[in-house]
Structure formats: structure tokens, C-alpha cells
Amino acid sequence: MKIFWIKLINVILIVFLLCEYNHVIKYREQKENIDRLDAELVKSKSLSASHEENKQEVPLYTNGTYEGEGKGFGGSIKVNVTIQEGMIAGIDIVSADNEDGAYLDAAKGIVEKIISEQSADVDSVSGATFSSAGIKTAVGQALKKAEM
Prior knowledge:
Largest sheet: 3 strands, antiparallel
Structural class: alpha+beta
Order of helices and strands: HEEEHHH
Number of strands: 3
Oligomer: single chain
């Protein structure tokens, strides 16, 4: 009977050790996956930062003032887009034939968005959708003329 208990304890001990060994293996695999993903994240962030630095160093547009035209709510909207140091520095609405004053005034808020985004691809102004779309189209047309 004594031998039976010794063998039983040995079997239990071996099963316990195998289970613990499996836990250690799973832990190591998880740790390796986490390390690999961390390395990929760091690499991705450094590539993204490098891309942003390169993007900011390269001028987007040729310096000067360019005219564009778009269709607003009531008619044609003409703008002058000023480019300095390769970036949009200012947007002036030159004329807005037959454009409703209230819609145009509301749509003028899009000018700051375009300058801050350095692109005409911004959301339209709610309540002045057609007028802001006309400004965006006019600015986009001017920017195409300014592209390097």
C-alpha cells in the first residue's frame, strides 16, 4: 500500500508540473507577442512622425495669389487665395454675385477651417451648405493653379 501512495503522489506531482510548464510556455508566448506588437507600434509611430516632418518641410504650393471660382447658393463666388512659404496664408472673397448676405456671412466661417487644414477638403458650414460649397470649390480651383 505504501508503494501505491508513493506512485500516486509522483503522478500527481508530474501532472502538476506539466500544467505549470504549460502556463509558463503560454506566458512566454504572450510576452513575445506583446514585445513584437510594441516594437511594431514604435516603428509605426516613428514612421508616422518622420512622414509628418517630411510633409511639413516640403512646400505644398507655389507662392503667389491665385483666383478661383465656384457656384454658391445665388450665383458665382470668386476668391483670391494667397500662398506664402508654400502654404495657404489667406483667402479673400472677391465677389459673390447674387449671393444671399446671411448665407454668405455664415459660410465665411469655412475660410479659417481651410487655412488651418491647409486644404479645401473640409466640412461645409451647416445652414449655408451651398455658399460654403461654392467657397470650397473656388479655393480648390485656386489651389490647383498653385500646385507645384
